[in-house]
Each structure stands twice: as structure tokens, then as C-alpha cells.
Design brief:
Blueprint lengths: L1 E2 L6 H14 L6 H14 L3 E5 L4 E10 L4 E11 L8 H16 L3 E4 L6 H9 L16
Parallel strand pairs: 4-5
Antiparallel strand pairs: 1-2, 2-3, 3-4
Helix pairs in contact: 1-2
């Protein structure tokens, strides 16, 4: 598992992230994805983890958690190439992120998934995540 720490690592990760976007219906945009990813890494707004030879990718936002005076880590994107699925890649990404969040003193590690994405929800449950029924997710698309 590799965490992107330098901009030189971005190209393979950007290609994988563009595949992820296309998987969800976005048009291919390799240059735009690479520029966006570089900006996220350079500004430290996101942590990006890549599994294997670009078999999977996970992006994480680290945000302040004022009530606990710690941080919350939010998994924003998790994608494994179809050829690498069912080999533990997603689980390894989740474990790596959880280990680093714990080591950094984070209060919480969260993610959200479409309810209809049953395989992902089952994977997350096996990894220790549980649905938070007392929380309502609200969006305001800008």
C-alpha cells in the first residue's frame, strides 16, 4: 500500500481515479483528473492511497472534529479495478487507512455508500463500519 506523498506518484493514481469516475458515468478526463489530484495532494486536502500496481485507490479527507478536539477521517472514494476484485484489495486499503487514522489520533473514520451498493455495504460492515441511523446525510449541490 502506498500513500501518495509526492506529485511524481500521481500519474498512475490519476488514471485509476479516472477509471473510477467513468465507472460511475463520468466522461473520461485524464488531464483534469491528474490536475485535480495533484492539487488535492499538494494542498494536503486529501490523502490518497494506492494498492499494488494501481489495483485500487482510496481518497480520504481529514477534517477537524471540534467536539473531541481531534480529527475525523472521511473516506471519499474507494475503487478497485474489476480485474483485481475479490482479492482483498479493498479490505487492505480500508485497513491501511484505519491504521493510519488510529495512529494519528483520529476520533472517527467514516464513509458513505449508496444503499443499493450491497456488496460494498457488506464489505464495509465486515471491516467494522456500522450504519448510523441517528445521522441524516444532507446535500446541497453547489
Amino acid at each position: 500500500m502506498t500513500r501518495l506523498g509526492s506529485l511524481g506518484d500521481v500519474d498512475a493514481a490519476a488514471q485509476l481515479l479516472d477509471e473510477y469516475r467513468q465507472h460511475y458515468g463520468a466522461n473520461p478526463a485524464p488531464e483534469a483528473v491528474a490536475a485535480w489530484l495533484r492539487e488535492q495532494v499538494e494542498s494536503a486536502r486529501a490523502r490518497v492511497y494506492v494498492a499494488g500496481e494501481a489495483d485500487g485507490i482510496c481518497t480520504v479527507a481529514v477534517v477537524p472534529a471540534a467536539l473531541t478536539l481531534r480529527t475525523a477521517w472521511l473516506i471519499r472514494d474507494l475503487y478497485v479495478r474489476p480485474a483485481a476484485r475479490r482479492r482483498g484489495v479493498a479490505r487492505a486499503l480500508l485497513e491501511t487507512v484505519a491504521d493510519e487514522a488510529r495512529a494519528s489520533g483520529a476520533h472517527r473514520l467514516s464513509l458513505q455508500s449508496e444503499t443499493a451498493n450491497v456488496r460494498a455495504v457488506e464489505l464495509y460492515a465486515r471491516a467494522g463500519f456500522s450504519a448510523q441511523t441517528e445521522v441524516t446525510v444532507l446535500d446541497n449541490v453547489l
